[in-house]
Write a structure and sequence with these properties.
Blueprint lengths: L3 E5 L2 E5 L4 E2 L11 E4 H13 L4 E5 L17 E6 L6 H12 L5 E6 L6 H7 L3 E2 L7 H8 L16 H5 L1
Parallel strand pairs: 3-4, 4-5, 5-6, 6-7, 7-8
Antiparallel strand pairs: 1-2, 1-8
Length: 165
């Protein structure tokens, strides 16, 4: 079972994953679920109106805009990193936080590597299913590796040129 790491109030900690990640061909179990975008669009209304926590799993080739209307009803969005060098997922997280104001959990799943922790946090991810078994302590260290940042991002850290005054 992969470890789930959550970032809350600036602190990383191990967390229990209460969601079941459901494949398209599987029956919907009881409790909170994560569905593909296609399945959510087909069956999501019935699940969400049943007072169940529902999340959607977005692949890199799926547009976050397709979820815009439903975001207030979702408990989380799980964004899939298909491989470490695919940066589209960072854009998805940024759009969720900055354009759509999504305030619930944005989870990084798939090929989630410790070396990308800083960028994931900066773009708005707040939970992580690391592929390499890294610990919350390792994530905290990796996310805080760089003292200065040079661009504005979803984490609202001031860039270096603002710190200089």
């Amino acid at each position: 079972m992969p470890t789930l790491i959550k970032l809350q109030n600036g602190q990383f900690s191990a967390a229990e994953d209460v969601f079941t990640d459901v494949a398209d061909e599987d029956a919907i179990p009881e409790g909170p679920v994560i569905l593909s975008l296609a399945r959510f669009q087909a069956e999501g209304d019935a699940l969400v109106t049943g007072n169940r926590a529902v999340g959607v799993r977005l692949q890199t080739d799926e547009a976050v805009e397709d979820l815009a209307y439903d975001l207030p009803r979702l408990a989380l969005v799980a964004v899939v990193f298909p491989k470490f060098r695919d940066g589209r997922t960072f854009t998805t997280a940024t759009l969720l936080r900055e354009r759509f104001g999504y305030a619930c959990e944005v989870r990084a799943v798939g090929d989630v590597l410790l070396q990308q922790a800083n960028f994931m946090v900066r773009t708005g991810f707040d939970s992580f299913a690391p592929a390499d078994g890294a610990t919350p302590e390792q994530w905290a260290k990796a996310a805080g590796l760089f003292r200065h940042v040079y661009q504005r991002a979803a984490d609202h850290r001031p860039p270096a040129f603002e710190e200089r005054g």
